Amino acid sequence: MGNKYTESQKKAISKYMETKHTIKVTVDKDKAEEYKRAAEKEGKSLSRFLADCAETEIDKMAQILTLDGREALEEGELTPKELEGMYKYELIRKASKIGSMQATFDANYKRVPDAVKELSPEIIASVVDALYDAYSEGKTK
């Protein structure tokens, strides 16, 4: 039995892999099957499908940035984690009834405990609004 790959094929694969990084993702088995079906539907490998999904999410988050912010992300001055935080903040602000009042929103957002900030943007927005309502009611009494 001979080798599966020629020496030149091994070199080509090695050169290709120099610019790549393997990422392992652990998900429930039913989710894995769902992702595989979705990838097949798109005519993509599972790896390409997941990478495309991640890129789409990063692109959506980057839409809240100015041109300078996008450049900072591309140049590594802004991390995807920081971008995620900015994106979540914008979603919270949009979901809050006081989100259009920047200073008022910020003052109430700062009062939200860190543990609560792990929840969904909609829940955090309702906490911000509840803090605002409680404060407003206290001022009028």
Taken from the alpha-carbon principal axes, the silhouette is elongated
What is the typical, i.e. mean, pLDDT? 87
Number of strands: 0
User: What's the alpha carbon Rg, rounded to whole Å?
Assistant: 23 Å
The total count of helices amounts to 7
- Helix content percent band: 55-70%
What structural class is derived from the secondary structure elements?
mainly alpha
Sheet with most strands:
none
Which regions are unreliable across 5 or more consecutive residues at pLDDT < 50?
A: none
Q: What is the N-to-C order of secondary-structure elements (H for helix, E for strand)?
A: HHHHHHH
What is the straight-line distance between the termini?
Answer: 89 Å
Our estimate of the beta-strand percent is under 5%
